């Protein structure tokens, strides 16, 4: 693990990764906001080109903070440690000029809330063309042509380039955000709640569009959502975050249908399933809220809400454990030697995970914090 830095101060030398390694490799990432709120604690994740990683969890679990940290978009004074290797180069070690060059061109982000992310007084085409002008050194005419091509690529008429954000529907604005993310041909896209507040039909269209673009352009995708069903349908792998750390990781469909960690199982059970009358008439939820990242409980941070917690859970924190092929979970009930079946699995507690992604992070309201870029 490398040293600690603040968000307004670049850190030493970039690390060289293996030539055939993952597109993005996050190692022991920790984020602490001014005031002491530890929003991300020791997260380890990786994404290969052409693959899709979903990150799920309640509001306040550290998902958005993790996304912002990947491109150093956190507020000034935030302490960040660990490594964020993008194509083998440590983002935390880059000088600011290099960081600006990587944003949009190397990795781009689809922010939450398209209406709030777009500039209300500028036309859509001009906003898409701006990063093209800055990063591609294109002429204004070429940038405008590219902006229209991108709109058509995401299923909008080129003529919408002359529209203002308020003249578009929610689904159209979200497509514009995706077009902007693709403007400089990035290798990695981070989509933070890309389908929030969209109706089911538009949501499905956006998800199919994202899948098509990843497949056609061999882009790596990190998709953040509260909805496990959406992530299971869209992503290859799924990481579940709680209190700033990854508590379960594995193949997306397996995590959704057979979560091994009690928290992952609670999230999955919160969504009614078509044809399952019991879930329709008696959907199961999870009482309480994620803990305050500035005042985390002792031991396993989930134990105050866990229906199958042991006495030891209040004392001993739980690392990610082998929970079967390609799976890991941070639960004392996980028995990796038994193929990932938890000792309490017969009682429905489900405790296991996916491949070791030793990550942790306490979440709080701060994980939704938006920050200004330098």
TrEMBL record:
Domain ABC transporter intervals: 24-268
Domain of life: Bacteria
Protein name, UniProt field: Dipeptide/oligopeptide/nickel ABC transporter ATP-binding protein
Species this protein is from: Streptomyces sulfonofaciens
Keyword Cytoplasm: no
NCBIfam families listed in its UniProt record: oligo_HPY
Keyword Chloroplast on entry: no
PANTHER family listed in its UniProt record: DIPEPTIDE TRANSPORT ATP-BINDING PROTEIN DPPD (PTHR43297:SF2), OLIGOPEPTIDE TRANSPORT ATP-BINDING PROTEIN APPD (PTHR43297)
GO terms for biological process, alphabetical: peptide transport
CDD domains: ABC_NikE_OppD_transporters
GO molecular function terms attached to this record: ATP binding; ATP hydrolysis activity
InterPro entries reported in the protein's UniProt record: AAA+_ATPase, ABC_Ni/Peptide_Import, ABC_transporter-like_ATP-bd, ABC_transporter-like_CS, Oligopep_ABC_C, P-loop_NTPase
Subcellular location as annotated: Cell membrane
